[in-house]
C-alpha cells in the first residue's frame, strides 16, 4: 500500500480518500470493498427495507438513508448512486405514483445535505440536516401534488391550502400527528438510528473508521 500526501489533484484508478480532517491523505489500494463500505451498504439497504414495514404516513427512513449515504460514502458518485438504488428497489416493491419525480428530486437534494455535514457530523449538524431534509421534502412534494391537482385551485391561495393540508392534524391518532409532523419525527428517528449505529460500531470495531 502506498500513501501519498500532496495537494495536487490525483488522476489515478483505485485511489481512496483517507478520512482525516487535518491532512489530505490518499491511499492507493486495489481493495475497494472494505469492511467500512460493506457496513455502510448494509445500513443503507436495510434502511430501505424498513420502508416495507407498516408505518405512519411519512414516518419513513428516506431522509435518513440520503443523509447517511451523503455523509459517509466517500466517493461522491457512490454517495448518490447507492441510496438511489436502495430507494428504487424498495419502490419497485411498494409501487410508483405520479409524484415520484418530486420525491427523487428531494432525495437527491438530501444526499447533497449529507455531503455538507460529511466533514463534521456532530449531533447538532445531524439534527439540523434532518430538520432541513424534512422541510425540503415537505415543500417540494406538496408543490408537486398541487400542480395540476383537481382538488386545489391553481393559484397562490390554492398552493397555500395544499401546504396547510399537509400541516393539519389527523383526527385519527393511529396515523400519527400530521403528514409534516410524522415526517419530522421519522427523519429524526431514522437519521439518529443510522448515524448512531455507525458511531457505536466504529467504537467497537475501529477498522470501520478507515475509508
Question: Can you describe this structure?
Answer:
With 211 residues, this protein is mainly alpha-helical. It has two domains: 1-32, no CATH class; 33-209. Helices cover 59% and strands 5% of the residues. The chain is built from seven helices and three strands; from the N terminus they run βββααααααα. The chain has helices at residues 35-49, 62-72, 76-94, 100-116, 123-146, 156-167, 179-204; strands spanning 2-5, 15-17, 25-28. The chain is elongated, with a radius of gyration of 19 Å. Residues 1-18 and 20-30 have low confidence and may be disordered.
Give short descriptive properties of this protein.
single chain; 211 residues; mainly alpha; 3-stranded antiparallel beta sheet; 7 helices; 3 strands; elongated; disordered N terminus
Q: Helix/strand/pairing class, anyone? A: mainly alpha
Profile the largest sheet: 3 strands, antiparallel
> What is the percent of helical residues?
55-70%
Shape: elongated
Mean pLDDT equals 86
Which runs of at least 5 residues are low in confidence (pLDDT < 50)? 1-18, 20-30
Strand content: 5-15%
Tell me the number of structural domains.
2
Strand order of the largest sheet: 1-3-2
The total count of strands amounts to 3
Amino acid at each position: 500500500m502506498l500513501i501519498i500526501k500532496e495537494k495536487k489533484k490525483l488522476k489515478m484508478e483505485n485511489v481512496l480518500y483517507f478520512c482525516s480532517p487535518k491532512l489530505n491523505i490518499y491511499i492507493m489500494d486495489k481493495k475497494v470493498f472494505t469492511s467500512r463500505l460493506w457496513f455502510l451498504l448494509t445500513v443503507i439497504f436495510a434502511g430501505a427495507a424498513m420502508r416495507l414495514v407498516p408505518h405512519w404516513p411519512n414516518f419513513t427512513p428516506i431522509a435518513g438513508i440520503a443523509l447517511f449515504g451523503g455523509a459517509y460514502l466517500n466517493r461522491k458518485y457512490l454517495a448518490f448512486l447507492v441510496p438511489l438504488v436502495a430507494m428504487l428497489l424498495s419502490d419497485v416493491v411498494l409501487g410508483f405514483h405520479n409524484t415520484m419525480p418530486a420525491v427523487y428530486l428531494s432525495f437527491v437534494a438530501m444526499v447533497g445535505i449529507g455531503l455538507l455535514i460529511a466533514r463534521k457530523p456532530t449531533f447538532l449538524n445531524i439534527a439540523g440536516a434532518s430538520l432541513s431534509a424534512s422541510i425540503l421534502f415537505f415543500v417540494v412534494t406538496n408543490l408537486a401534488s398541487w400542480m395540476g391537482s383537481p382538488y386545489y385551485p391553481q393559484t397562490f391561495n390554492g398552493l397555500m391550502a395544499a401546504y396547510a393540508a399537509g400541516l393539519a392534524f389527523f383526527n385519527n391518532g393511529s396515523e400519527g400527528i400530521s403528514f409534516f409532523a410524522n415526517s419530522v419525527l421519522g427523519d429524526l428517528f431514522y437519521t439518529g438510528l443510522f448515524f448512531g449505529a455507525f458511531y457505536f460500531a466504529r467504537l467497537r470495531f475501529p477498522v470501520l473508521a478507515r475509508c
